[in-house]
């Protein structure tokens, strides 16, 4: 046995491996050359009979045979394993009926946003959008938020190294719109918001809001706001739904109110859903504070307006009877397909 003979064996082995068209044929090549009783073992056993001057060359060729054949066998095995899928695709019959997938359904949050936009669009409101990453000015200062307000703390807001933050509300969109146009302004601003809330059944670090703003040179009153929200309540929750206002405080509105809807389960009589009060808190609202108008270059002596904001997930939970906000984000098809 010499080096040339080993090279010839290697060429023959590689040729047979390339010619194998089945996994069984490939395995037969492996056993013939690399098995316990294969040709490679015979070569290694015969090294003792090779003249010392040629022994190193024969050893190198034997090692090359082993490495090159093992590599080719792995490559051919992978190619043969992929071959059935290629064959199935090549044999595709376009005349056979297809396998139809069930149509998807809108997520409850998306459904509520679409419903809200559609309802307010009937009253002349258009959609406005803004960035999720906001400046300190647009998210807080322009909205009359004092420097000592807790929402500016790093424990409440996601601050970035640039000094910007993930918006805590969609109100900054209202500021950007008022900065860019003169009254009248009639917009709704649906979008995602972020706060450092601990996730539980009713809170999430990311959530959706839809806010609205109406500003005009003609007189705008709190009565106009109440009539708007009453119309929205009846369209969203049912024709028997009523609203009530309770005094509250927001830095960007004066006067400020909390808006409640009559419970959609008990109709205002009192039940566990509304904690036996007959009412469910839905929105915060109020007349735009004159200081906010001055920040955007409006004259509070000649314009007036109202604004409101509500949580989309809260409306979805009330409307569809969802007990835990986390169910909205788990992407469980068993849950989501209920809203088809």
Number of domain modules: 2
% residues in beta strands: 15-25%
Cα-to-Cα separation, first versus last residue: 77 Å
Find the count of extended strands (DSSP E, 2+ residues).
9
Total count of helical runs of at least 4 residues: 11
By helix and strand content, what is the structural category?
A: alpha+beta
| General form | elongated
Percent helix: 40-55%
CATH topology of the largest domain: BirA Bifunctional Protein, domain 2
What descriptive keywords fit this protein?
seven-stranded mixed beta sheet, alpha+beta, two-stranded antiparallel ribbon, 11 helices, 340 residues, 9 strands, BirA Bifunctional Protein, domain 2
What is the compact description of this entry?
This protein folds into two domains: 88 residues, no CATH class; 232 residues, Bira Bifunctional Protein, Domain 2 (BirA Bifunctional Protein, domain 2, 2-Layer Sandwich), CATH 3.30.930. It is 41% helix and 19% strand. The protein contains eleven helices and nine strands.
């Amino acid at each position: 046995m010499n080096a040339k003979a080993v090279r010839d064996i290697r060429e023959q082995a590689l040729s047979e491996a390339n010619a194998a068209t089945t996994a069984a044929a490939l395995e037969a090549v492996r056993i013939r050359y690399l098995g316990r009783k294969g040709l490679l073992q015979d070569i290694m056993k015969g090294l003792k009979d090779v003249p010392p001057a040629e022994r190193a060359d024969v050893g190198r060729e034997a090692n090359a045979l082993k490495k090159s054949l093992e590599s080719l066998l792995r490559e051919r095995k992978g190619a043969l394993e992929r071959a059935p899928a290629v064959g199935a695709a090549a044999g595709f019959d376009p005349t056979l009926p297809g396998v139809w997938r069930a149509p998807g359904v809108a997520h409850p949050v998306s459904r509520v946003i679409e419903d809200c936009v559609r309802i307010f669009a009937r009253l002349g409101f258009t959609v406005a959008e803004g960035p999720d990453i906001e400046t300190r000015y647009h998210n807080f200062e322009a909205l009359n938020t004092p420097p000592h307000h807790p929402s500016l703390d790093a424990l409440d807001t996601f601050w970035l190294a640039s000094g910007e933050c993930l918006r805590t509300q969609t109100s900054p969109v209202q500021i950007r719109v008022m900065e860019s146009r003169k009254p009248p302004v009639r917009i709704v601003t649906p979008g995602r918001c972020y706060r450092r809330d601990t996730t539980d059944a009713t809170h999430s670090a990311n959530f959706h809001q839809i806010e609205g703003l109406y500003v005009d040179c003609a007189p705008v009153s709190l009565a106009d706001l109440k009539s708007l929200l009453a119309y929205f309540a009846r369209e969203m929750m049912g024709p028997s739904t009523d609203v009530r206002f309770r005094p509250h405080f927001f830095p960007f509105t004066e006067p400020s109110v909390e808006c409640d809807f009559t419970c959609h389960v008990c109709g205002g009589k009192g039940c566990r859903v509304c904690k036996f009060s007959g009412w469910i808190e839905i929105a915060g609202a109020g007349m735009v504070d004159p200081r906010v108008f001055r920040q955007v270059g409006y004259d509070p002596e000649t314009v007036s307006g109202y604004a409101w904001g509500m949580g989309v997930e809260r409306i979805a939970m009330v409307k569809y009877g969802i007990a835990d906000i986390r169910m909205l984000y788990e992407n469980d098809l068993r849950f989501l397909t209920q809203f088809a």
